[in-house]
Design a protein that fits this description.
Rossmann fold; alpha/beta; binds nicotinamide-adenine-dinucleotide; 436 residues; UDP-Glc/GDP-Man; UDP-Glc/GDP-Man_DH_C_sf; UDP-glucose 6-dehydrogenase; UDP-glucose 6-dehydrogenase activity; 6-stranded parallel sheet; 39% helix; 14 strands; binds uridine-5'-diphosphate-glucose
Length: 436
């Protein structure tokens, strides 16, 4: 059934939801309070790099199934309203729901009876139970429908989800079924549960992913100590289907707009319930240590000492985004490491296929990977863009002042890099690895 869908917030989640639901045949109106963003979207221009999203936005505009506005009144006759607003890290780790609550407070005067209010934002456990009170309109059913898309794969994940989660009271079950029907036939399990379970499942998934990465980052350190190779250890772990191969690559730490804030929020939620979830605290500490460890490794490689001075030393960075496939710099470990190196006096040049600029006094961003090597004392891979593997290392070696590579993503083929004369340092890798 074709529904009139309203979306508030045209960011990663809101814009993707709006464009995908229009693609699935619904009539969608997407509201954002950022005038310039709405102006661009109206012309079919999007500011985030998500494969396929611009095409879907243009398709929606052309078919007139998708409209953008800054005016909340345009939402007055929608059947379903998705809240896709930011819930950033607040005091003590809690998610800050002020924006969401301010918007919710305006809805009773806006919506027609029967409109289903859906939280797609990641919201603290208990929000679904509180929203009906805040709304004060029993004729507006509330459903929790957490979103699990990954940045860089937003459209693909939205249209082919692993699961669709609907949290509602038994009384609002029909409303939850209506939300589920918006997605059409995806083949994914559609799971009806209570609001608290839906909300907790979202936090639990992100925090678990964070734990997995911290686990492998610590293992990489252990590998260095005992002469083992994390690439083999991770691979051998991942062959066990109970563990699975994903999220077992060491790196400069987990970042982005979700894992850090959601792990902190789950820890806080546990504390508030008097539950000791110390394993999350440990994972967060390990994550902070990981950034420091990578910075030390770079210092060591450049100066020969883990506390050596970087004053005036040129370092070329390959990658700035928190992961490959996105230009998102929010909570990026690469950026945090760049800041640390700059604080130590290093002069930084960076190339990232997804990033055009950052604060100019921190790092000079160039649009050609070969420019980062110019007079550099070291090249550091901080984001795992696959194209870095195919760089011409001979050409980079010619431009660099010293042939040192720190591969903080274990992305490169160490043999190819070594053939060009570079010294290669990875994370938890062994130069004489024998397993293939
Ligand atoms: N980014 C992801 O990959 C992802 C995935 C799953 C869930 N989430 C969750 O979804 C929520 C949104 O995240 P996001 O990454 O899409 O955020 P975002 O910052 O990309 O987008 C939020 C949008 O809301 C708009 N906005 C802010 N205040 C507004 C207001 N009062 N009225 C109208 N519009 C307003 C902003 O202008 C912005 O366009 C968060 O809770 C996040 O944790 C994010
Ligand atoms: O083996 C790995 C895998 C990931 N990472 C890092 O972990 C972080 C998070 O990666 P990813 O989970 O892919 O990023 P997001 O796009 O933020 O997606 C997460 O956060 C979203 C917002 O809640 C959820 O919807 C997604 O399901 C969840 O994967 C990044 O810094 C990655 O570089 C590693 O270091 N090693």
């Amino acid at each position: 059934m074709v529904e009139r869908v309203g979306v508030i917030g045209a960011g990663y989640v809101g814009l993707t939801s709006a464009a995908c639901f229009a693609h699935l045949g619904h009539q969608v109106i997407c509201v954002d309070n950022d005038q310039s963003k709405v102006g661009l979207l109206d012309r079919g221009e999007i500011t985030i790099a998500e494969p396929g999203l611009a095409e879907l936005v243009r398709e929606g505009l052309n078919s007139r199934r998708l409209r953008f506005s800054t005016a909340p009144e345009t939402l007055s006759d929608v059947d379903v309203l998705l809240l896709c607003l930011p819930t950033p890290k607040g005091d003590g780790g809690n998610a800050d729901v002020r924006i969401l609550e301010e918007v919710v407070a305006t809805l009773p005067d806006l919506l027609e009876s029967g409109c289903v209010v859906v939280t797609k934002s990641t919201v603290p456990v208990g929000t679904g139970a509180r929203l009906p009170e805040l709304l004060g309109r029993p004729d507006l059913p509330v459903v929790s429908n957490p979103e699990f898309l990954r940045e860089g794969h937003a459209v693909e994940d939205f249209l082919n989800p692993d699961r669709i989660v609907l949290g509602s009271t038994e009384q609002n079950r029909r409303a939850a079924e209506r939300v589920a029907a918006l997605y059409g036939e995806t083949g994914a399990p559609v799971w009806f549960t209570d609001p608290a379970s839906a909300e907790l499942a979202k936090y639990a998934s992100n925090a678990f992913l964070a734990l997995k990465v911290s686990y492998v980052n610590i293992l990489a350190e252990l590998c260095e100590h005992y002469g083992a190779d994390i690439r083999d250890v991770g691979r051998l772990m991942g062959l066990d289907p109970r563990i699975g191969p994903a999220f077992l690559s060491p790196g400069p730490g987990w970042g982005g707009s979700c894992l850090p804030k959601d792990t902190a929020a789950l820890l806080r939620t546990a504390e508030q319930a008097g539950v000791d979830f110390g394993i999350l605290r440990d994972a967060m500490k390990a994550n902070a240590r990981q950034q420091a460890a990578v910075t030390r490794k770079i210092r060591q490689a450049v100066t020969g000492a883990s506390d050596g001075s970087l004053a005036g030393v040129r370092i070329g960075l390959l990658g700035l985004a928190f992961k490959a496939g996105t230009g998102d710099l929010r909570d990026s470990p690469a950026l945090a490491i760049a800041r640390e190196l700059a604080r130590g006096g290093a002069i930084l040049t960076a190339y990232d296929p997804g990033v055009e600029a950052v604060e100019p006094d921190l790092v000079q961003v160039v649009d050609d990977p070969y420019l980062v090597a110019k007079d550099a004392a070291a090249l550091v891979v901080l984001t795992e863009w696959p194209e870095f593997r195919d760089l011409d290392w001979d050409r980079l070696a010619t431009a660099a002042e010293r042939a040192v590579v720190v591969d903080a993503r274990n992305l490169l083929d160490p043999a190819a890099v070594a053939r060009a004369g570079f010294t290669h340092t990875g994370l938890g890798t062994h130069p004489n690895r024998r397993t293939r």
